[in-house]
């Protein structure tokens, strides 16, 4: 469910490249490492992997994790969060298509 990695968002490619180890990512968003693993298993985000299988989180992944924290604080469960993230991504894609069609 990680946001689509396309250039339509005017973000540098570094924004999408996994650079943070799971422990660093967990510290950045003040979550337990286990939670990040659960969110990945549930499809809320998809961190990059090294050839050896180590998870590497991008700045975009960190933003998704912050959004997950917000939604948890609002009382949503994992299924609800998945739906919200899916709908937010759909809106972003549609807005990008609209901007492109106006150009």
TrEMBL record:
Pfam families: MerR_1. It comes from freshwater metagenome. This is Unannotated protein. Keywords: DNA-binding. One of its GO terms (molecular function) is DNA binding. Residues 19-87 form the HTH merR-type domain.
């Amino acid at each position: 469910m990680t946001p689509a990695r396309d250039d339509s968002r005017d973000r540098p490619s570094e924004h999408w490249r996994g650079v943070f180890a799971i422990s660093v990512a967990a510290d950045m968003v003040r979550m337990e490492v286990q939670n990040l693993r659960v969110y990945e298993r549930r499809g809320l985000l998809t961190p990059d992997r090294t050839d050896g299988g180590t998870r590497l989180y991008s700045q975009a992944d960190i933003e998704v994790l912050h959004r997950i924290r917000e939604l948890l604080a609002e009382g949503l469960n994992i299924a609800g969060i998945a739906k919200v993230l899916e709908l937010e991504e759909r809106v972003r894609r549609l807005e990008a298509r609209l901007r492109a069609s106006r150009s």
